[in-house]
From TrEMBL:
Database matches in SUPFAM superfamilies: alpha/beta-Hydrolases (SSF53474)
InterPro entries found in the cross-reference section: AB_hydrolase_fold, Mycobacterial_A85_antigen
Name assigned to this protein: Esterase
Keyword line: Signal
Keyword field contains Signal: yes
Signal peptide: 1-18
Superkingdom in the source lineage: Bacteria
Gene3D superfamilies, A to Z: alpha/beta hydrolase
Glycoprotein in keyword set: no
Length: 568
């Protein structure tokens, strides 16, 4: 019996101590700050760093913060010091063969104007993509066999560096602008830049006395002006490429054809002659700033509105008046298009917000942050049902809201995951004592902080602000608010649009005189075009909204302004 008991103790001790460790060796780069990410994939179709996704087909990632880590010392990653997605603990990895890779997403130290010192990943031209950010260091994938019942240690050597990204070059029609923002530089305590890709109208060089309206497209960090090409589609492009999202073949050729068709329209005789811009304003939290002022991100709204846009208008002969500017965009860009119209009623002459991020926080996707107690689970006395996060047009669920947040937590703590939920928190939340955004909910449990929710409502709930301030700015907003959303938006963004529409219709003195429209069974990116499938209409924002605004501005522009000289 003593032998049996001794054997039992040995087995228990072995089970507790047996674990899988990954020892990471770094190149000699002095002190290192950042998020060390360990990724494991069951397949070799691409590097593991490109397979960390929302949804059922994701592979695994485990994260660990490095704070002034000496690069001459290896770092061991294990169950005790990492947090993972979709499996949270390294010890829970199933036995099997895996392709393993490690990457350090580097952080920079910022000494902000508010006195807070924070460590964040600065954008380096890639649009805040941790797996593509120049300067990040990583290892080549290796194949390992994991047996959770056996103590194992795998060595990973970081010897690769992501190279710099070449900036786009100017052409006849497209110019690229980058300026150092005085406002943002002062806030962040280091040089900060914002920019734009500018599409010039046909005849710009010939009509030197003409001044032009400004079409401002908001969206995710574009590498160049999107959807415009002076060359026809590549004749050799494969037609058998398949788009899983749209379930069609040959989509790359469709994209190229649409870009070329837009060039022909843009330079044709009947298209309005305007300046069209796509703004670049990546911040240390995301691929763009959401174009508003924020406690954690800084005065991006003012920098864009009062620094960047006037610079572009001066450089390229813009009219330079609020009525002569309009905003449009989808998703993040849809929220921004409406937000700047709301926040700066005198500076913009209309907005077209397609599939906007939540514009009413009573439907923050599938959460009412004011009434619900928990963001991850529906309230129940007997069971825990997770809130949905992503669906297709038939309502089939592929990710829950909790799962999406767990991915971001694995990628970065303190709202530094660089993804959707973290940027909403970084933009909308007040600053915490540690200098980072105060969480709207506990990232692990989903419990909502009602004080933070109240701050969100007063400052960024666009529907609430419109209703609250209509008596003050209604004359400035009248006829300028247009919202479009598919009624099967993948992220449930239509729920907030329903609530916003109800409030807008009840406004009076004056009536809102805008437009809200829905696409039947349309998914994310639907923009109000009932004549085309979503995979086409999402490529036609410029050609759709610029002519539409030119007609609408006849009703909203001040009497007596010049609406003809730029219509040559």
């Amino acid at each position: 019996m003593k032998k049996t008991f001794f054997t039992f103790l040995m087995l228990v001790t072995y089970a507790v101590t047996a674990q899988t460790n990954f020892t990471v060796k770094f190149p000699n780069q002095g002190s290192l700050d950042g998020r060390l990410l360990l990724m494991l994939s069951k397949n070799s179709k691409s590097e593991p760093r490109f397979q960390i996704l929302d949804g059922h087909d994701t592979q695994m990632v485990f994260g660990l913060n490095l704070d002034k880590w000496a690069s001459n010392k290896p770092k061991t990653m294990n169950t005790q010091n990492t947090f993972g997605y979709p499996i949270q603990a390294l010890k829970s990895i199933p036995a099997g063969e895996y392709y393993v890779q490690v990457l350090l997403h580097k952080y920079e130290t910022f000494k902000r104007k508010d006195g807070k010192v924070v460590k964040l990943p600065m954008d380096r031209g890639e649009g805040q993509q941790w797996n593509l950010a120049p300067g990040n260091i990583y290892s080549k994938p290796i194949k390992v066999t994991i047996n959770p019942k056996t103590a194992q240690n795998f060595e990973l050597k970081i010897d690769q560096t992501i190279p710099p990204i070449e900036e786009p070059k100017d052409t006849k029609y497209i110019k690229h602008i980058k300026i150092q923002s005085k406002l943002l530089t002062e806030f962040w305590g280091r040089p900060m830049f914002i920019g734009a890709h500018v599409l010039l109208p046909e005849g710009f060089d010939e009509h030197k006395d003409v001044k032009y309206p400004l079409a401002i497209f908001h969206g995710h960090f574009p590498s160049d002006f999107d959807g415009f090409s002076t060359t026809p589609p590549d004749a050799n492009i494969p037609t058998d490429d398949y788009s899983p999202r749209f379930k069609i073949y040959g989509y790359n050729k469709i994209v190229q054809q649409e870009a070329y068709d837009f060039y022909k329209l843009w330079t044709g005789p009947n298209f309005p002659r305007v300046l069209a811009i796509e703004i670049q304003h990546a911040c240390p939290y995301y691929d763009d700033s959401y174009a508003v002022n924020s406690e954690s991100i800084g005065p991006y709204g003012d920098a864009i509105t009062y620094e960047l846009i006037p610079f572009i208008e001066k450089q390229f002969r813009g009219i330079g008046q609020g009525w002569s500017r309009f905003t449009y965009g989808g998703s993040t860009g849809g929220w921004e298009a409406l937000a700047v119209q709301v926040k700066y009623p005198n500076e913009y002459g209309g907005c077209y917000a397609a599939c906007p991020d939540p514009i009413d926080f009573r439907a923050f996707t599938t959460v009412d942050i004011y009434k619900d107690k928990n963001a991850y689970f529906y309230e129940s006395e007997f069971k825990q049902t997770e809130r949905p996060g992503y669906r297709d047009y038939l309502g089939q669920l592929t990710a829950t809201l909790k799962e999406m947040n767990m991915r971001e937590l694995a990628l970065g703590t303190n709202s530094r995951g660089g993804q959707q939920w973290d940027i909403w928190e970084a933009v909308f939340s007040p600053v915490g004592k540690d200098g980072y955004p105060q969480p709207i909910w506990d990232k692990k449990t989903g419990v909502i902080d009602k004080k933070v929710a109240e701050y969100w409502r007063e400052n960024y709930d666009l529907t609430y602000i419109l209703k609250r301030d209509w008596s003050k700015y209604g004359d400035k907003w009248r006829g300028k608010i247009r919202i479009y959303c598919g009624d099967m938006d993948n992220f449930y963004l239509n729920n907030a649009v329903y609530l916003a529409e109800a409030e807008l219709k009840n406004l009076n003195s004056p009536a809102y005189e805008g437009e809200v429209d829905y696409g039947d069974r349309a998914e994310h990116c639907w923009n109000g075009d009932h004549t085309q499938p979503n995979y086409i209409s999402r490529l036609r924002y410029h050609r759709m909204f610029i002519p539409k605004w030119v007609e609408d501005m006849k009703k909203t522009a001040p009497k007596g302004v010049d609406l003809t000289s730029w219509r040559y």
